[in-house]
């Protein structure tokens, strides 16, 4: 079992390796807003789980299994973002929610949410109807609020 | 700020009070699968936050604020369940996912998910189209799997 924190590290190391070709302790620390000493400890744990190794000149490197998992974490994060973006959630709220939700979404639920995004992308009339439905609900709520004041 | 654990306790105490009229330490402990000593510690924390009080003959009682929050937790839990049930997720997976997700869903996202449930309930043609879409995707995936064997 991976902890939420391990999942965040794998996602971040995967991201850094894709962007820069390597992942340094200092880069991981600054992008996760943690102390370098915490990164070092976590790297040891991930090493014990055979998800990363340390190579003398390249630094921290994901194993095949680590890369597979990091890619899954990254994909899950991106797909949850897309889902919430489709629901017209504010960008800041999306980032907050996804950072928490991602660690608790089963593959079955993730698949269903992704299907929902694909469905609305291909059936824009349904998406349009849904957006109108939301706008009407919001107007109703605003009317109720102002009549209660 | 409430921790995930505090949210679980408030939800459970609210539930017990609605069902039985009171919440005993032993009932809370068994329904959350924790030790009675953990319940006692948490009740102290919730007491400091003025969310529960201890009354000599009634036992643990939610304050008005505690009851308001407990009700919100319970509602959020139920609505997330409804949402995942609409997506045809297995009951066991629903319970697991909701226990984790609920603590990380912002009010804005919760509202949007609830709108989605209401929308599909009122637009059953869209829901039907979505279900067909999912079934077709699944068939395609099964075909791909079997042709890869
Ligand atoms: Mn993430
Ligand atoms: Mn719950």
Automatic annotation (TrEMBL), chains A, B:
Protein biosynthesis in keyword set: no
Main location: cytoplasm
Lineage: Bacteria, Bacillati, Bacillota, Bacilli, Bacillales
Signal peptide bounds: none
Subunit composition and interactions: Homodimer.
Recorded family membership: Belongs to the DtxR/MntR family.
Ranges for domain HTH dtxR-type: 2-63
Name the UniProt record assigns to this protein: Manganese transport regulator
Keywords: Activator, Cytoplasm, DNA-binding, Manganese, Repressor, Transcription, Transcription regulation
Pfam family, one: Fe_dep_repress
UniProt keyword Cell inner membrane, yes or no: no
Localization terms from the record: Cytoplasm
């Amino acid at each position: 079992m991976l902890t939420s924190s391990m999942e965040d590290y794998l996602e971040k190391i995967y991201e850094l390796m894709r962007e820069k070709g390597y992942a340094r302790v200092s880069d991981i620390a600054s992008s996760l807003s943690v102390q370098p000493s915490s990164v070092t400890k976590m790297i040891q744990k991930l090493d014990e789980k055979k998800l990363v190794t340390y190579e003398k000149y390249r630094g921290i490197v994901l194993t095949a299994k680590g890369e597979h998992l990091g890619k899954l974490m990254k994909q899950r994060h991106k797909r949850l973002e897309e889902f919430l973006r489709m629901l017209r959630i504010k960008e800041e709220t999306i980032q907050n929610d996804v950072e928490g939700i991602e660690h608790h979404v089963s593959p079955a639920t993730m698949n269903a949410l992704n299907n929902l995004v694909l469905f609305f992308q291909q059936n824009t009339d349904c998406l349009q109807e849904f957006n109108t439905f939301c706008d009407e609900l919001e107007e109703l709520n605003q009317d109720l609020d102002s009549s209660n004041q």
